[in-house]
Amino acid sequence: MSDIALHGVNLSGWLKLEPWITPEYFAQAQVLDECAMVKSMSKQTYTDLIQYHRSTFIGEIDFKNIAARGFNAVRLCVPFYVFGDAGPFTSQFIGCADYVDQAFDWADEIGLKIVLVLDINPGNEGELSEYVPEFSSFNTYKHDALKTLSALAKRYAYRAALAGFELAAHPRIQKTFAFKRQSGIPAHLLRNYYREGYDIIRSLAGDDVLVIMPDAHEPHMWRSFMASGNYKHTMLDIHLDHFDEYFEMRGALTTQTLLATSKNYLHAAQKNGFKLMVGTWCSALPGLDSAMTPEGHIAQERIYMSDQLDLYRACDAWFFQTWKTQGRLSGWDARHAFSSFERRMICA
């Protein structure tokens, strides 16, 4: 694996549907998420829809445009059902391994790198357990998750485009507040899963491929983890696009507060000793000031974005959220958000 920093975009909403990326599908089906969509449609109707979407939403031209814009990598979340009926998970969802194959073909051709993320959320499964019984707890599907990770490693380990494997997407650690236990996965179980995932990747893909682990929004808990010299080319993923708690803020103070929060979070994560990847970030600001013009809001987003680019230069990788949205969402769609930035600002 090269020491060149990875500067890229997420390909969110491609292999699995996301309502904030392609809202028209959900409005037409009158549902809020893909699980409900699968339940409300016949299998053939859903199959036709998802296959049409996957074949048209992202294509080779997108990969070429990503590279032309100055990015050198993409982060691709691969759903747990990537191999469809071939397993190990079986569900009503439709597999997508052929599209992952295409992504590697396109990336190999133009020199882009790919970070593959196994899109599972230990301790944060939400309503998925209602549709896939195995997801009632992480212990019931951990073995199948590791089998899926193994199958991905066997399939893509020696593709030129592969940068690394990320072992999960959005895990949540179990906590206790005022004698009440908050839902999530016990920290030791998540650590054990990370160790087992690391061993699988190393046994099948060698020592050069990155093994990336989400910090589960707990930047302080990884300081002594994998501290021995037996673990190589590891990276901690921190997500810095969460601003819900600042939703009522307005004006320049919002930008300053969000940037300071990201800086403090980054500094806390750096103390763990891992290489760092900002797996998702955006330039969206929580709310519009009624006195601010649309042009002023766009200018403020650009300042916020530029400041973040400066901050994340201390990291070994970052991925903007995301490459494409149906409505070109300002602050989230890279085609819009980076439109006024020079290529050298991305490549630096």
Automatic annotation (TrEMBL):
Keywords in alphabetical order: Cell wall biogenesis/degradation, Glycoprotein, Glycosidase, Hydrolase
GO cellular component terms, semicolon-separated: cell surface; extracellular region
Name of protein: Uncharacterized protein
Alphabetized GO MF terms: beta-glucosidase activity
GO biological process: cell wall organization; glucan catabolic process
Source taxon at top rank: Bacteria
InterPro entries membership: GH, Glycosyl_hydrolase_5
Gene3D superfamilies recorded: Glycosidases (3.20.20.80)
